[in-house]
Write a structure and sequence with these properties.
The chain has 242 residues and is α+β, with helices and mostly antiparallel strands. The protein has four helices and 16 strands. The chain has two domains: 30 residues; 200 residues, Alpha carbonic anhydrase (Carbonic Anhydrase II). Bound molecules: zinc ion.
Length: 242
């Protein structure tokens, strides 16, 4: 009997260690205990990079965009898309994405996700919500993110489609997320706003916000309200505007 008890104790101790180790391995960045000030522990770039995102945009200090960096959007593609709650955001992965074009290169839409408040600020103003449309150049793997700010206003049918589709596959046209005016934006070179905070990301922030109803903003915030990284130093970067 004693032997069995000992064996059991050893087994349960081992089990405890295994759980503790697993837990150790699972230490993961977040917006709480392992929040933005700790992200350097997950990737040095987050703490030491000099081209990080998001930033505060000061329109008065921006310069005219170089013509080759003008943005051409071709997002109008009807597609099916998977909607998931990935623990940091509501993320939508279209089966077939549209493209954006600048500098003679094409970037394909690979996913888009939402933040419960905008990460970039404009003259210190934080918008009610933002969607980040993440594009990738299939050849160079470089990323280009188009950010669409949301302001409280009319109900936005495409957001209802996303909200009711969490955990499912939906039919969507990502162009429906864009505001009417897509010709005016800010552009600069930054990073991913989550670990590993990889740099050399081309950011395009549309000036005109889209609308979302109060109920829709609240519905997104039920999932994530504080999933925005604080604004980062600009250092020697220039913000271009169109
Ligand atoms: Zn984002």
């Amino acid at each position: 009997m004693k032997k069995i008890t000992l064996a059991l104790t050893a087994a349960s101790l081992l089990a405890t260690f295994a759980t503790a180790n697993e837990h150790e391995d699972k230490k993961h960045w977040d917006y709480g205990q392992n929040g933005p000030t700790h992200w350097g522990e997950f990737s040095k770039t987050c703490a030491k990079g000099h081209a990080q995102s998001p930033i505060n945009i000061v329109p008065g200090k921006s310069v005219s965009i170089k013509p080759v960096y003008k943005l051409h959007l071709h997002e109008d593609i009807h597609t099916t898309a998977k909607v998931i709650d990935n623990g940091h955001s509501i993320k939508v992965t279209p089966k077939e994405g549209g493209t954006v074009e600048f500098h003679g290169e094409k970037f394909k839409l690979i996913q888009f996700h939402f933040h419960g408040k905008s990460e970039h600020t404009v003259n210190g103003k934080r918008y009610d919500m933002v969607v980040h449309l993440v594009h990738q150049n299939p050849k160079t793997k470089q990323l280009a993110v188009v950010a669409v700010f949301f302001e409280e206003g009319k109900n936005n049918p495409v957001l209802d489609n996303v909200l009711s589709g969490i955990g499912k596959e939906i039919r969507i046209d990502p162009q429906d997320l864009l505001p009417k005016d897509t010709q005016h934006y800010y552009h600069y070179i930054g990073s991913l706003t989550t670990p590993p905070c990889t740099e050399n990301v081309q950011w395009y922030l549309l000036k005109q916000p889209a609308e979302a109803s109060k109920e829709q903003i609240e519905a997104f915030r039920k999932y994530y309200v504080d999933n925005e990284r604080p604004v980062q130093e600009l250092y020697d970067r220039t913000i271009e505007a169109e």
